[in-house]
Batch of 2 targets.
Target 1
Amino acid sequence: MKRGFFILIAFLLFTANINAQNRPARAFDPNKFQAELEQFITREACLTPQEAAKFFPVFRELGKKQRALFEKIPHNRHIKPANEAGCREAIIERDEKDLQVKMLQQQYHLKFMEILSAQKVYDVIRAEEKFHRQAFRQMAGWNRR
């Protein structure tokens, strides 16, 4: 029984290894990612070319500001502080950054609604979330639809 179990495990590991080797490694291209995101949002939110031309510069501006905020988050966020005071400080700092990101999003959602209808802004927000979920699944190798 144990022998059959070990043979099954070895077979699964072997096939998983071969499958991983058959997948070509792709480097992340931020420009391609941005273009695909914008195309997806345009299609999902049914933006006209005129709406897209007005909307996406502001959308890119939001992305640039969000990235700047994310870069300010300490790089040691994966390491647990050694004491109570360090943990308290890390929690407060993390909450402040999260609030800053949300306030920035709120600011830009209001700007978006000056360009597009509220319904289209809602569709844009949902489309962006959907695109990121799909991109994550694709990068992780999940083939679920």
Target 2
Amino acid sequence: MLPLLLYGRTQNKEKRGGDMPRAPSENVVTAEKMFRQGIPMVDIAKKLGVSDGTVRSWKNRYGWGNKAKKNQRNVAKKENGQNATLQKRKRGAQPHNQNAKGGRGNPHPVHKISPDAAVKHGGYRPVYMDALDDDERELVDMVPEDVEDMLLEQIQLFSIRERRILKAINKYLETKADVAVSDVSRYEEKRMFKNSEEEAEYDRRQELKVAANEKLPGKAYSLQTHTTNKDMIIARLEQELSVVQGKKTKAIEALYKIRMEREKQKQEEAASSAVDDWISAVIATDEKEAGIHE
């Protein structure tokens, strides 16, 4: 029975042409011609009565896109006739996106309205020598030019900072309570005015209310204090003390290195001067003896 089955399979394979691949059907050939003409695959599928997925599988199986350059016309079309997949994507946010307003690349950034609009406290604003005021120029003139003098000033400032931290640590250590005030926040209510005249009118009316005992003098504000375990405060101060002491040690090492290099340079110059003096003395002696012999 088994040989008969094998014989039947062999006959069927011979009828199909052996192991040769099956030739494309008429729909496949027609679809390929339409694809080469630039017709979108969606329209090809509608004309042949098949799904667009089937047309895509034919394209991948028979390698329509491998025989020539990529056919850029066979893409989905928008209503205005532009290619959907060949659109060059613009950088930045989507149109009418208000979340990116004022950012980089935005046509209406906040920085164009005011140069200081994005500056909060000015700590990271770049410094230019030609934009310094008189006090800052005086401070620059007071900076010592010698590196050794600058290191000495740094060591002095680190010593002062170290002493202040030690005093703060001792103050909390002497506190008997387990908690201490860590920081204090003050809140005030501010009023906006259109001009100075409006502000002056407001102050005048407030003075009238105070005079009529309708309001107490002065401005009210709220004060909020935050307490923390004193051990945590001491730990933070000790950590800051370690940082200051480390910077102070590095400054002392740099100063010691500079002084050693300068002392070495002085010794070399002294040795060189002694050698020059010895050479001059030898030359003078030789010249004197030569004169005597003459």
